Amino acid sequence: MPTPHGLPGRLVAFEGIDGAGKSTLLRAVADALRADGHTVHTTREPTDGVWGRKLRESATSGRLPVEEELRLFELDRREHVERELVPWLRDGDTVLIDRYFYSSAAYQGARGLDPTAILAAHRAFAPEPDSLIILDLDVETSLARVGQRGSADAFESRELLNRSRELFLSFGGTVLDATDPTGALVHQVLRMLQAR
């Protein structure tokens, strides 16, 4: 079955608002796939590169203007695609990514930019995921979880999270209930990947 990006590997994007459990689920799925003999790379955006570090700093030091924020995300993503994603996919490996260009469409879209235009611009250079997994979580639970981990920042206001959640749900993909136990979610993801 041909992949949407035309490369032999498999790209799985985990998306959703803050506190949805993307990182936890991604790690558990990676462990299960590796135990089954797959070569798996796990990664995230923003990355730890120069552009990604600027974005992480802005989350605590003060939100950037939305156009500048999107520009940095795109620079970071272009570098990530070129240096890691495409080489791994070309090698036929499985890549699990914690946030991808759908997050830019949701978060910068919630701040007033056109999410459809953001998706189109990124699809011009970034591989389309084979599977898009949206972990859906209500905003009150999101804020409670984020508060528990002590990392509330400028990206996590109630109004923006509500709008971002709406946008994530509009992108298609497989929507999972983020309040389900991790084990149940892992089973759902593995079953979906095996079916494809």
Structure write-up:
- The chain is an alpha/beta fold.
- It has eight helices and five strands.
- The protein has helices at residues 22-35, 50-61, 66-90, 101-110, 115-123, 139-148, 158-170, 182-195; strands spanning 10-15, 40-44, 94-98, 131-136, 174-177.
- It has a five-stranded parallel sheet, with helices on both faces.
Strand and helix layout:
Elements: E1 10-15, H1 22-35, E2 40-44, H2 50-61, H3 66-90, E3 94-98, H4 101-110, H5 115-123, E4 131-136, H6 139-148, H7 158-170, E5 174-177, H8 182-195
Parallel strand pairs: 1-3, 1-4, 2-3, 4-5
Radius of gyration: 16 Å
User: What is the CATH-assigned architecture?
Assistant: 3-Layer(aba) Sandwich
Can you tell me the residue ranges where pLDDT is under 50 for at least 5 consecutive residues?
A: none
Count of helical stretches: 8
Going by helix content, strand content and strand pairing, the class is: alpha/beta
Shape: globular
CATH C-level class: Alpha Beta
Residues in β-strands, percent: 5-15%
Major beta sheet, strand line-up: 2-3-1-4-5
CATH superfamily: P-loop containing nucleotide triphosphate hydrolases
Beta strands, count:
5
Total domain units: 1
String of helices and strands? EHEHHEHHEHHEH
Largest sheet: 5 strands, parallel
CATH-defined topology:
Rossmann fold
- Share in helix: 40-55%
End-to-end CA span: 8 Å
**Average predicted confidence as pLDDT:** 92
